[in-house]
Design goal:
Blueprint lengths: L8 H6 L8 H4 L3 H5 L5 E5 L5 H9 L4 E6 L2 H13 L7 E5 L14 E7 L17 H8 L2 E11 L2 H13 L3 E6 L15 H8 L5 E6 L3
Parallel strand pairs: 1-2, 1-4, 2-3, 4-5
Antiparallel strand pairs: 5-7, 6-7
Amino acid sequence: MRLRNVKGSREAIADNEYCIKDYEGRKGKWNEVFGNDNPIKIEIGMGKGTFIMEMARRNPDINFIGIEKYSSVLIRALEKMAKEEEPPKNLFFIRMDAEFIEDAFEKDEVSGIYLNFSDPWPKNRYKDRRLTSGRFLARYNNILKKDAAVEFKTDNQDLFSFSVEEAKNSKWNVEYETRDLHNTPENEGNVMTEYEKKFSALGNPICKMIITRDF
């Protein structure tokens, strides 16, 4: 369950050097923020930052941006960064709602999107809020480079079925699909999130899909 009320989290985030406040002003200029022309990949709903911090460490030639809606969750990632002897220089964070993702990134500016254990919004009336809904896929299309992919992991079987169908219905290509990632060869090199560790320890199989598009 997400923490939603950590006293002082908003103030701490506002003063943190790893968190970009004026993300709208950075639109189309993220390579200036990083000081290089390396590809930019983002994680939407990054939680406490375990996944994206490890990705940044493993891939120093890629720039990463973690996006999290809740201050009380994002503050935990910032606390982890503060404890690092050498925090990755290719990683920044934004506190924002994914609904406004197009306000932060220009067309063709993003080279990949990671969605990990996103909120399933189980009631059907909220399906458009799911980060793998056609509504969000259209937003991703407007910021992704043509050859970029969206990678999605979850342990929620219903959400996974919905996500695969939404991708197909939205004319995206399902390049990879599995309902048991940890027992496939593709699991080699897999970076686990906090939830992935928790759910896999409970015996829940992990689903993953990778999607691209031609339009």
